[in-house]
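tmp note - Pyruvate synthase
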Amino acid sequence: MEQVVAFESGNEMAALAAAQINYHLMGYFPITPSTEIAQLLDQMKARGEHDIILIPADGEHGSAGICYGATVMGARVFNATSANGLMYMLEQLPVQSGTRFPMVMNLVTRSISGPLDIRGDHSDLYFALNTGWVILTARTPQAVYDMNIMALKIAEHEDVRLPVIVAYDGFFTSHQKRKVQYFKDRQVVQTFIGERPTHFPNASDPTKPVTIGAHMNGDDLINNHYQQSEALYRAAHVFQQVAKEYAQLSGREYPFVDLYKMEDAEVALFLINSAAETAKDVVDQLRAKGIKAGVMSPNMIRPFPSEAIRQACKHVKVLLVGERADSYGAHGGNMTHEIKSALKEDPHNQTIVLTRIFGLGGKDFYPDDAKSFFNIALQTLEKGFAEKPFDYFGHVPGDPKQKWEQAIEPMYGDAFKSGLIQVIEDEETKRLKVKVPPLRALTSKPKRLAPGHGACPGCGIFPGLELFFKGIEGDVVVLFQTGCAYVVTTAYPYSSHKQTMIHNLFQNGPATLSGAVEAFFEMKRRGDIQISDDITFVMVTGDGGMDIGMGSAIGTALRNHKLIMLEYDNEGYMNTGSQMSYSTPIGHMTSTTGIGKVQKGKAFHHKDTPQIMAATNIPYVFTATEAFPQDLIKKAAKAQWYAQHEGTAYGKLLITCPLNWKSEERYGEKIMKAAVDSCFFPLYEVERGKTTITYDPEEKNKRIPLQEWLKYMGKAKHLLKEENRELLIAFEQEVERRWRRLKAMHEHPGL
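out:
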């Protein structure tokens, strides 16, 4: 069949395969380094190159649910994730395999937090081993394409009917371009896979009702799991069958285990994915010196290719297993133990097996590293026994002489107390009255963040945060959820934070800080710590954190802990590359809501987070922006008072993002002011259930049309074109509806 020669990355080939297959649906959530796949598919969708329904989830757990729901209807379904994204959806994976609904998911492997590291290793892949999914491993972009095509055929085979993971190395295979071939006509791909099977139970036919996921007792559950286990083992035979058919079609072969010069190898390396390609060059060099070296790399690890490994190791005297993840405390990673178990079944095998944990967090694997692995194996061969069967490779002991010195003396207590801000509760109205001095008077108050962070030029996060902190007196403990503000201020061994900063992931920041708050006060009560109790606890979130972290935020608010939740809203998942967030306005362009002949940006309205948080009945909710600094500082002071006296406060700051908004850096304040004056982002507060608009552009005769705000941003300029007038009108009507509702609440305190 005719194939096109190109130069593409693994992510590009995964997206291309999905588009050619033309899945019914993809439920997704952006996480580096798999994010590109959804972005590429969105670009193709905008150009009309496939019909896949792309559903942006509120988090990976939600994306797994979306995909499962589609599979139970009998649809063909696709997904992609990485690292903590896999961990967040992990409990859903056995649900799908245990009920036998096929789909394909690309796992672009990456180090699991903590600490956070966005580059590639296999710590996420190893967590997938016990989920009941078939797992294929792809060493190259070519293999990513080919295995994505084979994966669906395997998944849907009547002897298997299980979901399949295609795993490949993040930032190595996913982003590095290599020469590839792909079928010119997608009909070739679709013909190879075949028609969607319709003779298995699903939820789509009301004339044939089914119950999916009924609970079972042990007698039934053991039968269910036995059948699932047998199906997974049968997937090995089906893989062979499908690989043979695919080789006839494409000319590319994929055995269980890729063997490179293993026929007579005495020393060999076992490596998963991209590292194996690096080691092959070293094998050639060693062979030229008369050393019988080889490399083996699996194309499938679930089911584990035990027999293929036994056959490959017939002559191997020393096998070094290189693993990009550890199984802590087990004296070797997961692959080591499975290989040892496989070899134990051969009573004649005398292979010495070594383990070296390497390449964690995306640490590169060079030919010299492969040489070191072979040298370790050769030394073991010479000694005849394994002096050190298990070890790490590439770790470096610390040197006390190189200890980093603190650049800035710690600041605390009075250093952050200006004495210029007064917050008084009105005894009659029970509302807080705040007096703040002119901004000039607060310039002497030190910043909470030191200079030297890595934010983009014109980023609105730090002007917004620093203005907020001007209104906070005294010490703070700050928790940053993952996002731009966290990433650009903490990169070990550096930190821009002058006071204590804690990090946790998007989905659990509020819960984490609530635990810290309650532990602090309980230790104070018991006398375990002797510290002033006027510390303010602040959680900073943004970049979609109030999407994936919404459940945690609402739970924390309902418990009413004494803390502040502060959201900076840049209208997207900016830390992963400007993907759509639920705070992205309708029609706005992001990297996953592209503009083209069949779509015009985001398809639905933005989430009104302040109103959601107000509905939890916390004492104080506010909106603010740096374009109105006095208003922001006053609200920060109020938030602190409520957090110290009554419970949870929540604030939302609209901030600019020139890079992803495609706006000029110098217009940051103008854009924020225009957002307020157009009533897109009204300034108000909800204090003990009563709503007050703190700035009314209509009363001041400063209200402007929505277009006056949109024109500043490249991401929204298409809305000003005549062909998109209907979408603009829908946007204007929603802004007006929310504004009128807010004014009604302002005028009628009972609402």
